[in-house]
Design goal:
four-stranded mixed sheet, 587 residues, alpha/beta, 22 helices
Length: 587
């Protein structure tokens, strides 16, 4: 190995070390940020406690002076946050050029670090905002949510106290909801809710600050690294490298794998890289040298639409972040420059062009499903049109090839909406029943066929009554459903009180037996399978039934979250897709 080759090898090793160090810088900055916000929360909570009267209530007379003190503490928090971010941006920029400090390049690396810090500070994003604007917005948001939390609690408690006095003066008992609202003005309650508003939840000031920190610290590292790499005479560009923490398919997967410039998968000439693809990313860029580009790389150039067209439905939907955009891709109307365009914008554009956006249905090509179609195992003795629609949707998504025959029949039972009947001792399926009274026949039938597949498709491999509960191929799916909000909500209800107070003063009695039933692995599997087919199979009836069911859960018309919101379901859909691909049922 000559000296020049050895120097390049050192750069590669140093780049990997710099990536590891950046992850430490990121983790340390997140922890430091939490400490800064926690200190502010504790001080604000103490100020609230100190503002209470002898009965522990914060009166309206004390509200304005309390808000002034709280805002002063939030201003102090913002100053500490900004200083912390500045230090970490500088550290990240220095880390970005560290891979080249021993490369023998005749450049002033300190200038590169300074330039990266300035770029992060002054770069104007697509929304027209600079870093200082985002920091100001974060500060304003903190004041809004904390101030609103304090004011609402005090005013609500004050109004409830007046109402309570009126009831007492009339010799009547105070209603439960008024007693609860009166307690909202207690200093301890205000302190607790205010701390939660500041610190917890996806859109809290702390969460937004953590997102901003991660974005800008990683940007500083990447800009310094790119600028240093560009100085190397043998460099041709950088590779878009996914973070080890990248778990969900999104647009970064496309950037990291498409051979857009004929330089290899995810390799971009200097100035052409799409990195960073989105805020909160931890993806990297790593130097690529000219002699690393092979003839196959040069001849394998493809645009992003060509790459997307070769991917699985799950990858397409993850990259495009929209089922409708995926439908537009498959209909041939999506342009390469529209991949990152929000669907709301595209929809208006397509409508102006005379494209019927409401009929851009998902059309999964026959190559998406592999093996003998599931429809070959199912015969419709009743509900032939319903069964045909559901089986067509399933066959578009996946195949199978090992299922025994089973009939679909009508049932007049009022005890269930649909059922999969089998003889466990003989491992033999009997029938699928769909009742006449259910308003979601297609979705219910897909649910029961999910049971059929779970019970029968894996039985030759061992004693799996329900493969979803024990088969190793389901492990990723089991982890995904366990981590979903819908399932976690069911679990928390099993551990919670037997009766839950409602807003109208009534109590809802939790059916713990039904919860246990809903949390059985094979029941969760059937629900997730039917949702997977409803999302991917192109059945308008199933899609509509799923949306109506989820909407009823969201609005409280159904007390148990048996199905999933779209974002909550994404990791589960990814796991099901991976399972089917592994089994050879999808490609």
């Amino acid at each position: 190995m000559n000296r020049r080759t050895a120097a390049r090898a050192r750069i590669k090793r140093a780049s990997a070390k710099a990536q590891v160090k950046l992850r430490r810088i990121d983790a340390d900055s997140q922890n430091q940020l939490i400490e800064v916000y926690s200190a502010a929360r504790d001080d604000i909570q103490q100020q609230i406690i100190n503002s209470a009267d002898g009965g522990g209530i914060v009166r309206r007379q004390a509200m304005q002076s309390l808000l002034v003190r709280v805002n002063q503490r939030l201003d102090s928090l913002s100053a500490s946050r900004d200083a912390l971010l500045g230090r970490n941006i500088r550290t990240a920029a220095d880390n970005g050029l560290s891979a080249f400090q021993d490369a023998g390049l005749s450049i002033n690396l300190n200038n590169i670090s300074d330039d990266a810090v300035r770029l992060v500070a002054h770069q104007v994003a697509e929304d027209g905002l600079q870093l200082s604007d985002r920091l100001w917005r974060n500060q304003l948001h903190a004041k809004e949510v904390v101030g609103r939390s304090i004011q609402n609690a005090i005013i609500q408690g004050h109004s409830a106290s007046e109402a309570a006095r009126n009831f007492i003066a009339q010799g009547q008992s105070v209603p439960l909801d008024i007693m609860r609202r009166e307690g909202a003005a207690k200093a301890t309650s205000i302190a607790k809710s205010t701390g939660a508003q500041l610190m917890t939840g996806k859109g809290s000031p702390l969460a937004n600050a953590k997102r901003l920190f991660r974005t800008e610290i990683n940007r500083a590292h990447g800009e310094a690294y790119k600028a240093s790499a560009q100085q190397h005479p043998d460099a041709i560009g950088t590779r878009f490298l996914l973070s080890p923490q990248h778990r969900e398919t999104d647009i970064c997967d496309m950037h990291a794998k498409v051979n857009r410039y004929g330089l290899g998968a995810g390799v971009y000439p200097f100035g052409k890289s799409p990195w960073p693809a989105h805020p909160n990313t931890l993806s990297f860029e790593v130097i690529v040298f000219k002699d690393e580009v092979s003839d196959a790389d040069k001849s394998g150039k493809e645009d992003r639409l060509q790459w997307l067209g070769k991917q699985t439905p799950g990858t397409q939907e993850g990259v495009l972040a929209s089922r409708k955009k995926r439908a537009a891709l498959q209909a041939g109307v999506l342009k390469e420059g529209q991949i990152s365009t929000p669907w709301a914008v595209l929809k208006k554009r397509y409508q102006r062009q005379g494209i019927d956006v409401d009929n851009l249905n998902i059309k999964v090509g026959p190559a998406a499903a592999v093996g003998k179609p599931v429809s070959a195992a199912v015969s419709a003795q009743s509900y032939k049109a319903v069964t045909k629609d559901v089986l067509a949707a399933i066959d578009r998504v996946h195949g199978d090839g090992v299922l025994p025959s089973i009939p679909v029949k009508r049932s007049s039972s009022k005890k269930f909406e649909a059922a999969y009947r089998h003889i466990p001792s003989q491992r033999r399926p009997v029938e699928v029943l769909v009742t006449s009274h259910t308003s979601a026949k297609e979705f219910s039938l897909a649910h029961e066929l999910g049971h059929f597949i779970d019970n029968q498709a894996f039985k030759a491999e061992g004693k799996y009554l329900w493969a979803s509960a024990d088969h190793p191929d389901f492990e990723e799916w089991r982890q995904a459903v366990a981590g979903s909000k819908a399932v976690q909500n069911l679990v928390s209800m099993t551990r919670g009180p037997k009766k839950i107070p409602m807003a109208d003063g009534f109590e809802y009695e939790v059916d713990k037996k039904h919860l246990s039933y809903l949390l059985q692995a094979h029941e969760i599997w059937a629900r997730s399978y039917s949702q997977f087919i409803a999302q991917r199979g192109g059945s308008a009836a199933m899609s509509d039934q799923l949306q109506r069911w989820v909407a009823r859960e969201r609005t409280g018309q159904i007390n148990y979250t048996s199905q999933w919101e779209e974002q909550d379901f994404k990791p589960i859909a990814k796991a099901i897709e991976a399972l089917f691909i592994k089994r050879g049922w999808m490609q």
